[in-house]
Amino acid sequence: MQHDLQSNGLNGKRPIPPVIRVEQLTKNYYMGRTVVAALRGVNLQVQRGEFVALMGPSGSGKSTFMNLLGCLDRPTSGVYLLDGLPVSKMNANQLADIRNQKIGFVFQSFNLLSWMTALDNVELPLVYSGLSRAERQRKAQLALSIVGLKSRAHHRPVELSGGQQQRVAIARALVTSPSLFLADEPTGNLDSQTSMQIIAILQELNARGLTVVLVTHEPDIAAYAKRQVKFRDGRVLEDMPNPLPIVARLNFGHSAQLSEEKQVTL
Amino acid sequence: MNTIKDEGERELLQDPPRHASKPIARRKPQKYRRARGFQGLYQSTGSALQALRSNKLRSLLTSLGIIIGVGAVIIMIAISEGNTATINQRLSTLNPLQLTIRSGSTSTGGVRGGTGTLQTLTQADADALGQMKNVTAVSPTLNTNGQIVFSSQNWQSSVQGVYPSYQQIGSWQMQEGNFFTQADEQSGATVAVLGQTVVDNLFTPLGIDPIGQQIRIGNVTFTVVGTLTSKGSTGPGTNADDVVYVPFSTAQQRLSGSQYVSSIVLTADNSSDVNSVQSAAQALLEQRHNISNPANDDFTIQNASQVLSTVQATAQSLTILLVGVAAVSLIVGGIGIMNIMLVSVTERTREIGIRIAIGARQRDVLAQFLIEAFVLSVLGGIVGLIIGPIGAFAIATTNKFPFVIDPVSILIAFGVSALVGVVFGFYPAQRAARMDPIVALRTD
């Protein structure tokens, strides 16, 4: 498999590898003597620019799969190529660098550092990339303006609403220009109006070329993705395109906050 | 819909090069690592300080162990050095070549009830000892206490009858005038040499030069022929300057009337002969007193160099004890830091998970928590450095010690405190660094 990736006979030029290429991926957990097979051979490819929703009930293996995609964990067997890179063979430091540069995480519970301002939070991944302070601040400001929160750069998470916190988290995931944007139940802690804002932002980012993988158990949310992959018992049960994804609309009458900020930002 | 529209959009959302990128870890590793190391350190320091600031009380309590530890080390070393200085000052009045022979048994040595309780030594003994080889000077002493009166002033002091050679034995320097002479001794002249304390109490208030003045000791009138330079007050009860020396014969005839002497002091010609002179003196006195069994000796011989080494050894073991106590308190402080850092790591599990998820390497997390422990202990160390000398000064002044602060002790205390932070911070930091990000992110 690596072979056809590397030698394609196209005059030394390589084709664009898929963002995610997973083959026969398994993951076992060992609890004493019992082996729990969380993933039983998953095959999946995600091309650049896709918007994939990973679905499945709890225990279906989607969380395990998401951890493997995010390089937070290593598979028991199988191959995982991220952007063509054989991450399943990398050591801990290399994986840290992959997480830093190739992956943007967004979590259900935002996971911002409460004592830092929005700007500091967004800068944090760049600190581990070794960028200068000026460069970090410039990029973090850009990322905050993309999510419409430039005016809130110096607020701390407690001074922001849930939706705003999640947008800061999105900015933090964006700031390293990742190849893969991984969102784990990003709307799980938000009301439906705010959820729409977040989904709208993800759709917009995706429209600009970002590859988004969204983990959700809510079919309503998955309906906004271009492709839906359903997990069951550690395997891919169903993998189907969603030819007509719903486009998230911001109801300005009900989300005065965002529109207000839009006026400030734009 | 236009959620995203900004100048930054193009840069951050610009797709990476469309051909497969080389593995990240191999990209310009040298430059990349260095930049990251420096920024990481800077950032780790920043977040460490931030964490400490947001938990002020806890940080203070944690540092308290180190503050007390460092302060204790400095105070203890200052006390023991002040103590040593005091002892050395007192011992400087001791002549290491000197042997002092007293009446009485060894078992009660220094705490005898005073002269006169058991008297066995005579002037003849002293003169016989003076004939031994390797003895440079000998003097019997006859101690009495007397009320000394000059004009309107009076002062109680120790009046000692000694030979003129006592000036050499006691290493006395003359402030003014001369010590009395052999002729004075032979004629039983009523002349006196005054210690500085006596001069200060009898003559200084009146502004009169003591030389040639008449003083009264008991009911005998003496002429002051000399005053002694001060050996320095060495604390209450041990003031070598509070003394009046008169010729031995005069003291025996006019003040005491006793045929016995309080003690005999003699000096050896050099330090290698002190011990042989001591045993020769013992043998001679046993022979003169008809004693066959040394256990029945009716005198004791005190060897100044033995006293010196004994006292110095005592001072040294006191130093070791004090430093040991201080070191224990530093270690306890270190354990306090480890304890709080472990709590801190547990509390901040989620933060650690986030940092790992966004690309912190193990050593970035390790560095952050190590720096935090280091900063805690160094800050504690700095406060201890301020408190220590203040405490040492307070103790020195209240106990009339000399205030001695050794800069080396300060450096050692500070260095050890920083080391304690790193050593005891390592385990918690390592636990943080090895945390599983999946578990950490799931923790509340």
CATH topology of chain A: Rossmann fold
State the order of secondary-structure elements of chain A, H for helix, E for strand: HEEEHEEHEHHHEHEHEEH
Question: Which CATH-level-2 architecture of chain A?
Answer: 3-Layer(aba) Sandwich
Sequence stretches where pLDDT stays below 50 over 5 or more residues of chain B: 1-6, 15-35, 106-116
Chain-averaged pLDDT of chain B: 82
List keywords for this structure.
heterodimer, A: alpha/beta, Rossmann fold, six-stranded mixed beta sheet, about 35% helix, disordered N terminus, disordered C terminus, B: about 450 residues, six-stranded mixed beta barrel
Q: Could you give the topology of this structure?
A:
The complex is a heterodimer of chains A (266) and B (444).
Chain A (H helix, E strand, L loop, with lengths): L1 H5 L13 E12 L2 E13 L4 E5 L6 H8 L7 E6 L2 E2 L5 H11 E4 L11 H12 L3 H14 L15 H13 L5 E5 L7 H16 L3 E5 L3 H4 L4 E6 L2 E7 L14 H10 L1
Parallel strand pairs in A: 3-8, 3-9, 6-7, 7-8
Antiparallel strand pairs in A: 1-2, 1-4, 4-5, 9-10
Helix pairs in contact in A: 4-5, 4-6, 5-6, 6-7
Chain B lengths: L6 H7 L15 H26 L1 H36 L6 E6 L19 H8 L4 E16 L2 E10 L3 H4 L4 E4 L4 H6 L3 E4 L1 H7 L11 E4 L2 E9 L14 E5 H9 L6 E6 L5 H15 L10 E5 H44 L1 H9 L4 H37 L8 H27 L3 H6 L2
Parallel strand pairs in B: 3-8, 5-7
Antiparallel strand pairs in B: 1-9, 1-10, 2-3, 2-6, 2-9, 4-7, 5-8, 6-7
